[in-house]
Specification:
This protein has 16 helices and eleven strands. With 376 residues, the chain is α/β, with parallel strands linked by helices. The termini are far apart. The chain has three domains: 200 residues, P-loop containing nucleotide triphosphate hydrolases (Rossmann fold, 3-Layer(aba) Sandwich), CATH 3.40.50; 68 residues, Helicase, Ruva Protein, domain 3 (Orthogonal Bundle); 65 residues, Arc Repressor Mutant, subunit A (Orthogonal Bundle). Helix 11 packs across helix 12 and helix 13 packs across helix 15. The strands form four sheets. A five-stranded parallel beta sheet has the order 2-3-6-1-7. The structure holds adenosine-5'-diphosphate. The site of adenosine-5'-diphosphate (ADP) has 19 residues, from helix 5 and helix 11.
Length: 376
Amino acid sequence: MSEPGSSGAGRAHAAAEEAARAAPELSQAELERIVSPLAAADERMIEGALRPKRLSDFIGQGRVREQLSLVLTGALRRGKPPDHVLLSGPPGLGKTTIAMIIAAELGTPLRITSGPAIERSGDLAAVLSTLGEGEVVFIDEIHRVARPAEEMLYLAMEDFRVDVMVGKGPGATAIPLEIAPFTLVGATTRAGLLPAPLRDRFGFTAHLDFYEAAELEIIVRRSAALLGVALRDDGADEIAGRSRGTPRIANRLLRRVRDFAEVRCDGVVTREVARSALELYEVDEQGLDRLDRAVLGALVSRFGGGPVGLSTLAVAVGEEAETVEVVAEPFLVRAGLMARTPRGRVATPAAWEHLGLPPPAAPGPPGLAAPGSLFE
Ligand code: ADP
């Protein structure tokens, strides 16, 4: 595939800055978490250095990589921009990275913006009307593009044309404007929220899944090499296991463990060093942090495993209901430690095991359903 131009490094830096600007606003609770899958603007800048630049450096997501390679190679052979690409999946799994890789493989510049930044159709027209032939446009959180801009996007994706409105009110006229053929890469964490007409205009759709621990281990080793960290294989294994299937978290844990290794030890990250560091940062073997364990602990010991309503559970841990629901719950559910039922939140038997507590005796305490009936 083609090599990026000589200004590749400068371009990558500009792209990293744009990615930083497009980063979502994070709540305080999310910002303070070492295991947050989201990144604030300053972290996005640091991440730039660790991003794989080419498809061959990208670890994991084998099927997506193979399919994408065919799409890009085919387009390069034909000398035409590839189909528009939709990437869906949870945050921190590599959607922005893949968008950058697509531009690099095609040897074209990349424009980065995000759904929340496109409030009016004029915001989108400003990006699209200044595109060069074959450029790649990345719209992060594309499900949040404002409605009027969405209509403009349909036309642009299909006909490489935008209608620019001139004037206001009844006298306003739409002036069609040709734009250069381009490739849109859209990313979304909420594919279900995308309107069907938008989804249908993507010729290639890929869903990114959480990574296996073995893949995260390779990612951590690669990042350590780039950062100049002496990382033993068992240290990499320990970090990977606590990273919640998410490369962004793996890289963040690596940076914290490196600090610990350099300040408290001889700089070498072994399993022991990684364990001590992550104990200090309160990230346990499964990647749960203090908030996750507080929620799980309250559910198990104060409510006998539930079912309990979200707001009651939140009061018990001294947090807002939204924080518990958005910040802690998704991973607890994914890890199989908690379940949401119509009657409230319940702990699964694995929750007791994880907390090192004996499983509840059946039947449960008076007033609470027997544990066996909680998991129906
Ligand atoms: P998203 O856009 O899905 O939130 P990013 O592409 O910004 O995720 O990735 C977050 C971080 O994780 C980046 O620093 C990137 O280098 C790293 N990363 C993601 N996927 C991979 C991968 N497959 N291999 C190596 N690093 C990865």
